[in-house]
Design brief:
The protein is an alpha+beta fold and about 475 residues long. Helix content is about 50%, strand content about 10%. Its EC number is 2.7.7.19.
Length: about 475
């Protein structure tokens, strides 16, 4: 065992000394192997499906490790959300072993092992790549696909499918606290970058030169913030230093990927604190450029108050294990910018406020999806919630009853109630009326509508002047 560890350390040191300095980990970092009594991770805390994958890969002669966030969370005595695996088997070799395997991704080739709704993600050890725009490594045999890596002129990794050893894979990890590998063979945790020490010191530290690593993948800036808030840690000063200046690189990330990242950030259960830190590092402004125009130094605008309120409410619902709808969050955050846009459109074009409202709704959502590709199913819900706000004031006749039949009535009413916290007394009275209307029986609802009609809210219908009735022309014989 000692000989194996010595060989691994020697191999790791050789690779660190020979690799490109732009991705070199600090020289004081050394490999450490923690035995079972030292780390306290038990197999009973690991997903049964993840163990099945690990055992089968090992039985087939491959090295396989539980890696990254799963190991990190177990060491922090938290229940991991996902269990990811790293192995020296290629995606094609993994697919041969598992009939329930699906290969995904172009930028990063991954294997998903499907157990019903449970998905175990398996990645092949990543190797180093050159700084050239594109690099192709020939496959070991004709049945495997060539290994390809490429990067943009700005240094962003566009493709990263060059495979390597576990030591190289550890060096390619983003944060030290994620360069941790648990083996079911000997129950050890291998720490390649003093990640356990950083866990104990409550520090999020990027591996390698921060500016280079952020340029490779700007989403790492979002991950640094997410981990710091989620794990109640501090971002190490050298890791934090370039973020504000490089935040603009987020604009080069595909909008679809940023949508997924926004869900992780806003629906983490610490959405409010995450928002505040993202804004501090100029990252939130890149995700929601429309909102940044409404930010003030003292957080006093209605937009800022609404953002803080909806995120605090979302955190509370998640803590209570209640369902959260992303569309409701987006509707709340974008509401006041949309209303201001509607007033501007109405004033500039002479359109009625209703028509200007519809134009502004489309404009705001179209602009936002350029940054974050909010799916149509969510933007449709956002529009429904917004449009219902105009209908709430129209309660005469059968309108109130029809409004309650709308599929998005409950979400729209909750939104109206939330607006009443920040808007005038008329909105508060309207929200109170709808609260009473929902809880009333059918006869009481009829009386409430009659009272609205008697109060003069119903416009008298203007009769068209009657035209003299024309006689049917008689056919001359």
């Amino acid at each position: 065992m000692g000989c194996i560890i010595f060989n691994r350390v020697a191999s790791f040191c050789r690779k660190v000394l020979n690799r490109d300095s732009s991705t070199r980990v600090p020289e004081e970092q050394t490999l450490q192997v923690y035995q079972r009594p030292e780390h306290g991770i038990s197999r009973k805390d690991i997903s049964e499906n993840a163990l099945k994958v690990l055992y089968r890969l090992n039985k087939a002669g491959y090295d396989a490790y539980l890696v990254g966030g799963g190991v990190r969370d177990l060491l922090l005595h938290k229940q991991p959300k996902d269990f990811d695996i790293a192995t020296n088997a290629t995606p094609e070799e993994i697919k041969k072993l598992f009939r329930n395997c699906r290969l995904i991704g172009r930028r990063f080739r991954l294997a998903h092992i499907l157990f019903g709704r449970d998905i175990i993600e398996v990645a092949t050890f990543r190797g180093h790549h050159s700084d050239a725009p594109a690099q192709v490594v020939a496959p070991k045999d004709n049945k495997q696909k060539p290994q390809i890596s490429s990067r943009s002129e700005e240094g962003m990794l566009l493709r990263d499918n060059v495979y390597g050893t576990i030591e190289e894979d550890a060096e390619r990890r983003d944060f030290t606290i994620n360069a941790l590998y648990y083996s079911v063979k000997d129950f050890t945790v291998t720490d390649y970058a003093q990640g356990i020490e950083d866990l104990n010191n409550r520090v999020v530290r990027l591996m390698g030169d921060p500016e280079t690593r952020y340029r490779e993948d700007p989403v790492r800036m979002l991950r640094a913030v997410r981990f710091a808030v989620k794990l109640d840690m501090d971002i190490e000063p050298v890791t934090a230093a370039p973020i504000r200046d490089l935040a603009i690189l987020m604009q080069d990330i595909p909008a679809a990927r940023l949508f997924e990242e926004s869900l992780k950030l806003l629906q983490s259960g610490q959405g409010l604190e995450t928002y505040r830190m993202l804004r501090e590092y100029n990252l939130f402004q890149q995700l929601f450029p429309i909102l940044s125009d409404h930010f003030t130094e003292n957080n006093s605008s209605k937009t800022e108050k609404m953002i803080e309120h909806i995120l605090a409410s979302t955190d509370k619902r998640i803590a209570e294990d209640k369902r959260v709808n992303p569309a409701f969050i987006y509707a709340a955050m974008l509401w006041y910018p949309m209303m201001i846009r509607a007033e501007e459109v109405s004033f500039a074009s002479g359109l009625s406020f209703y028509d200007a409202f519809m134009v502004a709704s489309n404009d705001i959502l179209d602009e936002q999806v350029r940054s974050i590709a909010i799916p149509r199913r969510h933007t449709t819900t956002v529009r429904d919630i917004w449009q219902q706000q105009l209908r709430f004031s129209r309660r005469s006749g059968k309108r109130a009853f029809k409004t309650m039949e709308h599929p998005k009535f409950r979400a729209a009413y909750d939104f109206l109630e939330m607006r009443s916290l920040f808007e005038g007394s008329d909105i508060k009275e309207l929200a109170q009326w709808w609260s009473e209307f929902q809880n009333a029986d059918y006869n009481q609802r009829g009386q409430m509508v009659t009272h609205i009609n008697d109060g003069g809210n119903r416009r008298p219908r203007r009769r068209r002047p009657q035209q003299p009735r024309r006689k049917k022309p008689q056919v001359k014989s």
